[in-house]
Amino acid sequence: xxxxxxxxxxxxxxxxxxxxxxxxxxxxxxxxxxxxxxxxxxxxxxxxxxxxxxxxxxxxxxxxxxxxxxxxxxxxxxxxxxxxxxxxxxxxxxxxxxxxxxxxxxxxxxxxxxxxxxxxxxxxxxxxxxxxxxxxxxxxxxxxxxxxxxxxxxxxxxxxxxxxxxxxxxxxxxxxxxxxxxxxxxxxxxxxxxxxxxxxxxxxxxxxxxxxxxxxxxxxxxxxxxx
Length: 227
Description:
- The protein has about 230 residues and is mainly beta.
- It has a single domain (about 5-220), classed as Sandwich (Jelly Rolls).
- About 0% of the residues lie in helices and about 55% in strands.
- The strands form three sheets. Strands 1, 13, 14, 15, 16, 17, 18 and 19 form an eight-stranded antiparallel β-sheet that branches.
- The chain is globular, with a radius of gyration of 17 Å.
- About 35% of the residues are buried.
């Protein structure tokens, strides 16, 4: 594989603004009212939205279909309700997956008293029209891979002490997002909200800088296949 790295800084994300009272969003890819034909996906990842919700704020019931939605809470408590009867509260350290399949509706809102911040990431599945699925992994451990069913994508979580290194997976498409802190990767210093898109990733190591880092890394071996 020939390796190439492109860094997307937090300040270059499209600021979606307030969708409703107390809700703001920053998009890494084309999404909603923002469209850039050169930035619609990386591997199977088609969305990586940074959401900030004030206490009591949220997204009213809305539909999804044929997408795997993975949510990572940074701060606060996220309440999830869906048309399949699932009702949960997701907290920092939990991984939530909503496999929309043939169609599902859900509500998301801030269930806590403080500000809620979370990442919501959308992955294209390998099969369409399947049964909806839902799961939450509580307190996922460091270096424990979370393989998404029905996709060729694996999520890796890394929490690093200052100066601590971590090996990253080899992948045709590797997307590394800095949730908090800072890390050095492939000659670049990445800070909170920054992301690296690495094609043909091989033998890469990230090292925490400053006071440490929390990273999410998507290992992907395919691109979207439609039709």
